[in-house]
Amino acid sequence: METGSEAILLSGQSGGVATLTLNRPAARNALSVALMSELEAALARLAADPTVKAVVLAANGPAFCSGHDLKEMHGLRGREAVASVFDQCVRVMTAIVRQPQPVIAKVHAMATAAGCQLVASCDLAFAADTARFATPGVNIGLFCSTPMVALSRGIGRKAAMEMLLTGHPIDAATAERWGLINRAVPSETLDTVTAEIAALIAAKSSFTVKTGKEAFYRQAEMGLDEAYAYAARVMTENMLAADAAEGIDAFLSKRPPVWRED
């Protein structure tokens, strides 16, 4: 919590899908130390909850997320204080990647700097066709170096460098074409589209999804031969797991599978 009585991060759950909603609308959901702390804690709590199959990251107000809280950052004194904020941001972004459940960004409006990083860090992202994305740090003498890590892993290098060097915002159609988001949809259908995808994922085996998500990110950093060797080991373990046996038996028996609860 920050000053005031209203929660800065809202949490809800329905049908195996947890929703975390950034709730600093007056600050355009800037990532204050307090908000990042709550987000980090909420992700850790959800990671340990076997009833949660997918996580949706949403926001209230006129922006999805405007990045770091520059007013807060401007008041910091000393290298250690500044470094601690960026270290905390790194923990939040890596927590999303390492979250056992898939994390889906539901982007209704502008996402800039660390807010764009937040979108790029999520496993999936769906956006209103009116949303915009930018890494404008270069405009104020602060290159978006940490957002660059997630951005350059999510889209092509030339596209990432264009965003980083110009600071110019891109529209949702461009973000979809470049691979920053999965799909740009009309604003009025964003909730439905995101909910449908989250429900599809929530219906899968949690063990299988967790295994696959972890393997995806690990193999992506490997050379081809190492990646195939690693993926073959993962698939062998997956094949021997109870949910794979259940899934194959259900497929052959033409019945719905009954997944185990982790």
SSE layout and pairings?
Elements: E1 9-14, E2 17-22, H1 33-47, E3 54-59, E4 63-65, H2 70-74, H3 79-98, E5 103-107, E6 110-112, H4 114-121, E7 124-128, E8 132-134, H5 145-154, H6 157-166, E9 170-171, H7 172-178, E10 183-185, H8 190-202, H9 206-220, H10 224-239, H11 242-253
Helix pairs in contact: 1-3, 3-4, 4-5, 5-6, 9-10
CATH architecture of the largest domain: Alpha-Beta Complex
H/E element order: EEHEEHHEEHEEHHEHEHHHH
CATH topology of the largest domain: 2-enoyl-CoA Hydratase, Chain A, domain 1
Q: Describe the global form.
A: globular
Structural class: alpha/beta
Mean pLDDT: 95
CATH class placement of the largest domain: Alpha Beta
Outline the low-pLDDT stretches: none
Strand order of the largest sheet: 1-2-3-5-7-10
- The CATH superfamily name of the largest domain is 2-enoyl-CoA Hydratase, Chain A, domain 1
How many strand elements?
Answer: 10
Taking Cα atoms only, what radius of gyration do you get, to the nearest Å? 19 Å
Percent in strands: 15-25%
Q: Please, how many domains?
A: 2
Given the structure, what is the number of helices? 11
Largest β-sheet summary: 6 strands, mixed
Keywords: Fatty acid metabolism, Lipid metabolism, Transit peptide
Protein name: Enoyl-CoA hydratase domain-containing protein 3, mitochondrial
Family: Belongs to the enoyl-CoA hydratase/isomerase family.
GO molecular function, one term: hydro-lyase activity
